[in-house]
Amino acid sequence: MLIGVIADDFTGAGDIAVTLAKGLTGEGGLNTTQYTGIPTTPAEAEVEAGVVALKSRSLPAAEAVAQSLAACRWLLDQGCEQIVFKYCSTFDSTESGNIGPVTDALAALLAAKSVVMCPAFPALGRTVYQGHLFVHDRLLNESGMAHHPLTPMRDADLRRVLQKQSASRVAHIPWQTVVQGSQALQQVIEAQPERTLLIVDAISEHDLITIGRASQGAKLITGGSGIALALPHNFIAQGRARGKQAQAPTIDGPEAILVGSCSGATRAQIAEHGKTHPVMMIEVSDVLSGKTGPEQLVAFITEHQGRAPLVYSSGDPEAVKSIQQQYGREQVAAALDRLFGQTAQRLVAGGTRRIVVGGGETSGAVVSALGLGALTIGAEIETGVPLMVSRGARPVALALKSGNFGSKDFFAKAVAALQGGRHA
Fold it and tell me: Is this prediction's pTM over 0.85?
């Protein structure tokens, strides 16, 4: 294994996994496998990039650090020469959040002198300029992320956000340096004082490719999935990897869509899906009271099998906030995770073979409950969302979508992609 990735949620893990599997256009990527949690056995010999998916984004910092270090040690045991810490392209992390502490801990373990940090994902409108994170033409804190129920982002200046979390020195490399090319950028990175976290500007994929090439030989880099665009190239150019196209089998069989995100994009996708497909809304209060459980969700999905049925707990941010204030954020999150996890278990036991999940937390709950282990990374369904297939005698095909990802008709498109393109 050449590259090891530690991802702080399951949808982000799939996002960077497909980036590594694709590589640069015309060149191909690495043989990539995603692991649901920290494996307990060695990786297969042919795996060139391993992505360990954790559910650590919203954990207390100490727990996130412990899990990330354990994942890093496993990846190092597999021979990884470069570690990537992958977090969200909107830098989801409160002042007491995990990005700084996890990066500090990984840098110490790896004896990394300086660490590139760049969450930019221009294909989805996330760019970093003058150290500030933008979502399209809005500063991060003006994009709606200030109202996120778990990780409200109220400051677009990543230097300030990071310095409140980290014990390391935080510095900034401006876009004007990045555009001078990878060699000049590498020299600036290597000239930094010991233990420096570097917020690096990027406003295009070309910038991310420059950053990736400049990171050749770096023990640790961090960012969104775009940071990995050129990392396979570095090993292919050295003749240490041949480059390949991501492939995974499509799966026939019953389908289900489980959604637990409250993002604006996801709400619009649910509304679009509901125009032509059966949709069931879950009242969180009914879940907490025991009125609604996995049996109701399974019954609805089974009744509408073949029509891409969707069940969701997604609501507007104000409604979610009200429920959290009434019952407690942790209790609400735990109840929904348990509901979706148990629903997925019953569906798969009953023969469901295609599952599309919306929302990072929900994806983590579903994949953890299913205990699928290693996932083969296939083609990209839409930007940042790959087809993934579990191994074994009865494989399950998955698409895990982050809340803000995907076109309006994403859910129908994903169900079809898992089966090879036949729309329900």
Answer: yes
